Amino acid sequence: MSIVSNSLKRIKPSPTMAVTSKAREMRAAGKDVIGLGAGEPDFDTPDNIKEAAIEAIKLGDTKYTAVDGTPKLKKAIQSKFKRENNLSYEIDQISVGTGGKQVLYNAFMATINKGDEVLIPAPYWVSYPDIILLAGGKPKIVKCSEKNNFKLTPNELKKAISKKTKWIILNSPSNPTGSAYTKKEIIALSKILLKYKKTFILSDDIYEHITYDNFKFYTIAQVEKLKSRTLTMNGVSKSYSMTGWRIGYAAGPKEIIKAMAKIQSQSTSNPTSISQAAAVEALNGTQDFIKIRSDSFKARRDFVVQSLNNIKGLSCSKPEGAFYVFPNCKKLLGNKTKLKSDKDFVERLLEKGEVAVVQGSAFGLNGYFRVSYATSMENLKKAMERIKIFCESLS
Ligand SMILES: *Cc1c(COP(=O)(O)O)cnc(C)c1O
Q1: Which CATH number does the domain 63-284 belong to among 2.30.30.90, 1.10.3720.10, 3.40.50.1820, 3.40.640.10?
Q2: Ligand 1 atom, smallest distance to 174 CA
Q3: Same topology for domains 6-44+289-394 and 63-284, yes or no?
Q4: In terms of DSSP bridges, do strands 117-122 and 94-97 run parallel, antiparallel, or are they unpaired?
């Protein structure tokens, strides 16, 4: 009998671990590996935000706070939703946690009974299925196709949803594809969701501010009739380059928000008081650098998409946001190259080309890989050259 619990046994070890640890080994051995696996912006946290944290320490803002967020931060979040999304929430409809990840964990732990079904469009962020499994739920994966830019279509939704669907997760712009739903696409999905009155919607908006070409961000809680069963998750990690500060938040139905606080009160209690003060400044202070950074990300996206499409055997669509692309490598798999899967491709690319990316199957879709362009243009140029040489060597 193992000491490890049965619920933990349902969780797979992180599929990205193999590549990450191999890359680390190679670096330790003196190899110049370029990492395109990062799930965080390479920019530093803006100075005004850092100073707000220093000020908080000096003022003695260093004690326990209310479990699911200080009144000040909740107010800043309330204004953010009003200002940016035209959504009105009461203060008790808002919850703050230690990163978006804890917020998701709280939400599913607080609402899922054994066997409850959760619809997850693939490719998906790696943590969704495992959080659902830990909570005792049943992830129901819906594979989305490249020809629809990896977005869930109304037809696919219609086929997959049922009376048993407790939640559906939407993530736009998406990790790992960068694809984002337009208002029109969200309205089309909402027409089906309106018929399933017991299904709740989790909208993961963490990449809201990283979009290009004047893309107009729209979130499903803006569909009035769905707002009462939508939990919108967001956070400061990606928009404000604050991954290490660990602040995420959600807004939605009071009953869920209250249940989430209950879980948090018996696990971590409040997120760090200092990080909360910094997050207040992030949300209320100047937003100027968001545009500057997005422009820089856009230049990299354009370069990476163009470079990948110039490599024989690869093809890559141009996504609307986030800092990832999800190129297709199916033409390089098979007998001729002796690569059986995207995992083989990624492992060999690391070994021979010394570039670290993540296989698409880690995100629930085979035949692709994820490239994160949250790194310098110089690194990207070197990496694209190496990927080209590697792919050419295969044929
Ligand atoms: C990074 C990320 C999150 C949450 O990140 P936190 O640092 O925990 O706030 C949530 N969803 C997606 C899709 C992400 O990429």
Answers
A1: 3.40.640.10
A2: 13
A3: no
A4: unpaired
Pocket perturbation via mutation, ligand 1, pick of 40, 175, 243 by most ligand atoms within 8 A of CB: 175
Residue 293's pLDDT band (cuts 50, 70, 90): very high
Distance CA 92, CA 98 (A): 18
- CB 176 near ligand 1, within 6 Å: no
Report the atom number in ligand 1 closest to the C-alpha of 247.
9
User: Ligand 1 atom 3: the closest Cα is on which residue?
Assistant: 100
What does the pLDDT average to over 27-56?
A: 94
Gap between the Cα atoms of 173 and 252, Å rounded? 20
Place domain 6-44+289-394 in its CATH homologous superfamily: Aspartate Aminotransferase, domain 1 (3.90.1150.10)
Domain assignments of the chain as residue spans, ordered by start: 6-44+289-394, 63-284
Distance, CA of 390 to CA of 72 (rounded, Å): 52
Please give the model's pTM, rounded to 2 decimal places: 0.97
Residue bearing tokens 């990492």: 35
- Interval 191-219 mean pLDDT: 97
Please tell me if the CB atom of residue 127 comes closer than 6 angstroms to any atom of ligand 1.
no
- β 200-204/230-235 pair status: parallel
CA of 229 to the centre of ligand 1 (A): 21
Integer CA distances (angstroms), 190 to 116, 173, 224, in order = 21, 17, 10
